[in-house]
Each structure stands twice: as C-alpha cells, then as structure tokens.
Amino acid sequence: MADILVVTSKIKKIIKEKGDMNTSAATIEVLSKAVERLCLKGIESAKADGRKTVMDRDIIIDHI
C-alpha cells in the first residue's frame, strides 16, 4: 500500500454526513492515488512554465 495522502477520518465523515454511507479502505487508497496524480500533473505544469512553485492553476480537475 502506498502512502495515504488524504485524512481518512475526514473522508469517512463527509461520506457519512452527506450520504449516510460507510467508506471502504479501498476508497481511501483510490482517493490518495488521485491526489498523487493531481500533484504530479501540477509539478509538470509548473516545470513547463519554468516555476518551482506549484500553483492552483497547475491543478486541473476535469472529472468533477
């Protein structure tokens, strides 16, 4: 298992509060992988612009 990049308790809380559902461990892993991919894409974007700082405009979320 890779590093967990999301706060498990916060994810479980929002899913419980908004949907009255439980959260599987696999869900936390998938969300962490998605966050990692977003970070890597942000790094690529910042480098392409010649920056050493990842900015909000480097994080593109296209499936929400």
Task: Describe the model.
The structure is a single chain. With 64 residues, this protein is an all-alpha fold. The chain contains two helices and no strands. It has helices at 8-19, 25-48. The two termini are 26 Å apart. The mean pLDDT is 94.
Quick summary:
The chain is built from 2 helices and no strands.
How many angstroms separate the termini? 26 Å
Biggest β-sheet: count, sense, barrel? none
Question: Taking Cα atoms only, what radius of gyration do you get, to the nearest Å?
Answer: 14 Å
How much helical structure, as a percent, in the residues? Answer: 55-70%
* Alpha-beta content class: mainly alpha
Name some characteristics of this structure.
64 residues, mainly alpha, elongated
Secondary structure elements and pairings:
Elements lengths: L7 H12 L5 H24 L16
